[in-house]
Amino acid sequence: MRQLGVLIVDDDFRVAGLHAAIVTALRGFRVTATAGSLTQAREALASHPDTDLVLLDVHLPDGSGIDLLAELECDCFIAGAETDAAAVRRALRAGALTYLIKPFDDTELARRLAGYAHYRRALSAEHIDQVAVDAALSAMRTGTRPVTHAGDSGSHTERTILDQFTAGEPMFADEVSARIGVSPATARRHLAALVDSGRLLMSLHYGSTGRPRQVYRLPG
């Protein structure tokens, strides 16, 4: 499956940058563009017709992000500070897949994006059945992929990785790689699967230089 393109629309460039870092850190996603207004968002959508998802603020300099929803030919998450119930209902009626109220932490956005990836996969066939529809809707509600077998605990490697977190301390992928004796790429792949299933949480760690690193921890 190709990478899912995300347009980020927020008039605060720092928030837009943070959201872009989270999107970029997730396997299977890429940022197509960022925009700070409705006008810029429309221009970005015209320039990037391969956008799959818009992460859309409500309060923008030239209007409400909710007004843009009716124009979209792709999916949308609302990510805004608007808490008026009528606005939330209006956004959901207009087609928003989810509504995130700021401030929310990195893990919550990552979890919702992982759910969206499963939603897309569940609805990727030309013809689908009720099981696929229910799986897609469940993924969007919970932010995780549905468990198909009761008590499914994943692969042996994933169980071994989880065992490394028993002390409750967060770890980077390279630390997990060194502990269990697999390559960093293999560790990252299994860590992403554990985040997708809700058994680990992922957030971003910002150092003094360079790109932020993904750090993993147990829920709770």
UniProtKB/TrEMBL annotation:
InterPro entries, alphabetized: 2C-system_Tx_regulators, CheY-like_superfamily, Sig_transdc_resp-reg_cit/mal, Sig_transdc_resp-reg_receiver, WH-like_DNA-bd_sf, WH_DNA-bd_sf
Superkingdom assignment: Bacteria
UniProt entry tagged with the keyword Phosphoprotein: yes
Residues covered by the Response regulatory domain: 5-117
Subcellular location, record wording: Cytoplasm
A Pfam family per the record: Response_reg
PTM-bearing positions, type 4-aspartylphosphate: 57
UniProt keyword Transcription, yes or no: yes
UniProt KW keywords: Activator, Cytoplasm, DNA-binding, Phosphoprotein, Transcription, Transcription regulation, Two-component regulatory system
This protein's name: Transcriptional regulatory protein
Species of origin: Gordonia jacobaea
